[in-house]
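User: I'm preparing a small set of examples for a lab meeting where we compare how different chains pack in three dimensions. I only have the primary sequence for this one, and I'd like the structure in token form so I can line it up with the others. Please keep the answer compact; I'll paste it straight into my notes.
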Amino acid sequence: MPESNCPEGVKDVRMLEDTIYKEYFEALKSKNKDKADFLSFIRSEIKNAAITAKKDKLEDAEVLAILKKIKKNLDEAKVTFATTARTDLVEKSVREIAILDTYLPKALSETELTVIINETVTGLGASSIKDMGKVMKEVIGKVGVRADSKMVSDLVKQKLSSGA
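Assistant: Understood. Below is the structure token output for the 164-residue chain.
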């Protein structure tokens, strides 16, 4: 069986697009309208990205990037809905995020991320904020979709500002 190009920490998602497709039809059969609607939306986002990339199917790493982007948008929308007292939409966002989380790899904790950043800074010999680009590139390459790039950026900046 060929090796997957998936980021480290992602279990057997070689056929992630197919899994989403199958679960979409299962949701339709079980008359789970909310899940079917959301999976249909995800499928359309994947299909649009494939058309843009002029491919029949996307690699799983590309699908994971789309899912992460959708999750980020949902997180932001949830905050907006909460500030406007739209509890119905907050609850819907929470349900949709729960569905997405079944396809995304487990996120790294801040502690795990800090260990990776410290190892990278030491390995690259980074000593100032000027080295942030090199460190970010290396860390993002290691963690893939398992960490939010904003959190990585904040932690790298904190580490390099403190004099490594």
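A couple of notes for your slides: Confidence is low (pLDDT under 50) at residues 1-13. Residues 110-161 form a domain with the Arc Repressor Mutant, subunit A fold (CATH 1.10.10.410).

User: Perfect, thanks.
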